[in-house]
């Protein structure tokens, strides 16, 4: 039986077992109660309360503006909805880069106030001390390497990272550093598939890819992108499983028409 079918609650150990048994890990983002309920009920292994909430929920251009209080609000809503999956919450920009004490305090707020199971943060060597301190306090940490959207103004662009050898070698080194620091898993975003495969083969912990090819241990997508709620965003790595923008748009048009024509409500839809 697959690990996915065996467990009633997904834990960090479950993900480790999945990697060992070659079973891919499924992960999506979620930000609210109703959607998290559907995704958990469908059997998703991991829900990430991503700081992409800054884009898809709040309409900001980048992930930088979202605050810790706002992330906590989204995470509380998601945690209330789920029965089975592992919930990971992003530490937002500016709440962990200062020093390891700041990082620990932010992680503790998330764990205490939301009931989530783990936190995620972006970066390599420069955040290793913070990861050690957070893990030392008993909080599981997921890393994030490659295209790290909180550093978008340093990169200047959302193009594929680590195509050049020097950046690729640095990424491999950072992945090992994160593993040594105690991360239970790492997200690899928008890097060449061959490089991602190499990292997944070298590391013992699971590597979850987004735009990182099929050689990693699992996949993550932003829920709004994969359900087609966003029309504007269509990178090569994205597969759309629904076209909710058009479905919601058409349903809304029909509702407006029914109200205007007095078709809604009918005899059976009133008291
Ligand atoms: O915030 C987010 O949605 C993420 C995923 C893209 C991995 O970090």
* Biggest sheet details: 8 strands, parallel, barrel
For this structure, the quaternary state is: single chain
Side-by-side strand order of the widest sheet = 1-2-3-4-5-6-7-8
Count of DSSP-assigned helices: 12
What's the overall average pLDDT, rounded? 97
Beta-strand percentage range: 5-15%
The second-level CATH architecture of the largest domain is Alpha-Beta Barrel
Low-confidence stretches: none
Radius of gyration, taken over Cα atoms and rounded to an integer in Å: 20 Å
**How many individual β-strands?**
8
Cα(first) to Cα(last) distance is 51 Å
* Helix and strand sequence: HHEHEHHEHEHEHHEHEEHH
Our count of domains comes out at 2
Derived from helix and strand composition plus strand pairing, the structural class reads: alpha/beta
CATH superfamily of the largest domain: Phosphoenolpyruvate-binding domains
Assigned CATH class of the largest domain: Alpha Beta
CATH topology of the largest domain: TIM Barrel
Hetero groups in this structure are: 3-methyl-2-oxobutanoic acid
Q: Assign a percent range to the helix content.
A: 40-55%
What is the global morphology? globular
Layout: helices, strands, pairs:
Blueprint: H1 3-6, H2 12-21, E1 25-29, H3 33-42, E2 46-49, H4 53-56, H5 68-81, E3 86-90, H6 100-114, E4 118-120, H7 128-136, E5 141-146, H8 152-155, H9 165-181, E6 185-189, H10 193-202, E7 207-210, E8 218-221, H11 223-226, H12 244-260
Parallel strand pairs: 1-2, 1-8, 2-3, 3-4, 4-5, 5-6, 6-7, 7-8
Helix pairs in contact: 3-5, 5-6, 6-7, 9-10
Bound molecules: 3-methyl-2-oxobutanoic acid (KIV).
3-methyl-2-oxobutanoic acid is lined by residues 29, 48, 50-52, 90, 187, 189, 210, 220, 222.
């Amino acid at each position: 039986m697959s690990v996915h079918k065996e467990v009633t609650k997904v834990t960090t150990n479950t993900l480790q077992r999945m990697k060992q048994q070659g079973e891919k890990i499924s992960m999506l983002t979620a930000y609210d109660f109703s959607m998290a309920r559907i995704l958990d009920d469908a059997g998703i292994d991991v829900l990430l309360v991503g700081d992409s909430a800054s884009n898809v929920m709040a309409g900001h251009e980048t992930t930088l503006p979202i605050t810790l209080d706002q992330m906590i609000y989204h995470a509380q809503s998601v945690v209330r909805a789920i029965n089975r999956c592992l919930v990971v919450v992003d530490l937002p920009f500016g709440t962990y880069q200062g020093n390891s004490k700041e990082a620990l305090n932010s992680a503790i707020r998330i764990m205490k106030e939301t009931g989530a199971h783990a936190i995620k943060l972006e970066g390599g060597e420069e955040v290793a001390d913070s990861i050690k301190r957070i893990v030392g306090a008993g909080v599981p940490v997921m890393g994030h390497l490659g295209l790290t959207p909180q550093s978008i103004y340093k990169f200047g662009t959302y193009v594929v990272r680590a195509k050049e050898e020097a950046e690729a070698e640095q990424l491999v080194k950072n992945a090992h550093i994160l593993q040594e620091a105690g991360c239970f898993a790492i997200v690899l975003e928008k890097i060449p598939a061959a490089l991602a495969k190499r990292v997944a083969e070298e590391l013992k912990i699971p590597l979850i890819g987004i735009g990182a090819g099929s050689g990693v241990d699992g996949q993550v997508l932003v829920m709004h992108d994969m359900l087609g709620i966003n029309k504007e965003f269509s990178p090569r790595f994205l597969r759309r499983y629904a076209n909710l923008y058009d479905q919601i748009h058409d349903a809304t048009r029909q509702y407006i028409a029914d109200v205007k024509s007095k078709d809604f409500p009918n005899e059976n839809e009133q008291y």
